[in-house]
Design a protein that fits this description.
The chain is α+β, with helices and mostly antiparallel strands. Helices cover about 40% and strands about 20% of the residues. The protein starts with a helix and ends with a helix.
Length: about 120
């Protein structure tokens, strides 16, 4: 399977509701999924691992348009990122608040962000 197919397959995976009893994604699984998410990195902030990427755009309007698209995707999945919008960039950070860490849903949503760049 190519990286593109892996990305599409991941993006098409259903996000599952999480609770405090949900398990974080295994280290081996997150490393494997991260390979198909070009430019994404796992960053530890406030003792929580987050999946983060900064997207570059030609201007503020494009940065806002992408943030809006990510917001729509988040609402559809009921899973919400931290978005930082600036002139020429949109930073997206995913993590699952209820488990204070990374869940498969975060990688699914990152994949959806990647596909959304084609729509922005």
């Amino acid at each position: 399977m190519t990286d593109s197919n892996t990305l599409v397959q991941l993006a098409e995976t259903e996000c599952l509701p999480c609770s405090k009893l949900s398990s974080p994604i295994a280290l081996a699984d997150r490393a494997s999924l991260l390979e198909s998410l070009k430019g994404w990195a796992i960053v530890r902030q406030d003792d929580v691992d987050r999946l983060v990427k900064v997207y570059r755009w030609p201007d503020f309007e494009a940065s806002m348009a992408f943030a809006h698209r990510v917001g729509e995707l988040a609402e559809q999945a009921n899973h919400h990122p931290e978005l930082t919008v600036a002139w020429g960039s949109t930073q997206v950070a995913w993590w699952t608040h209820v488990i204070s860490g990374l869940h498969q849903n975060d990688f699914i949503m990152a994949a959806r962000c990647e596909l959304a760049t084609e729509e922005s």
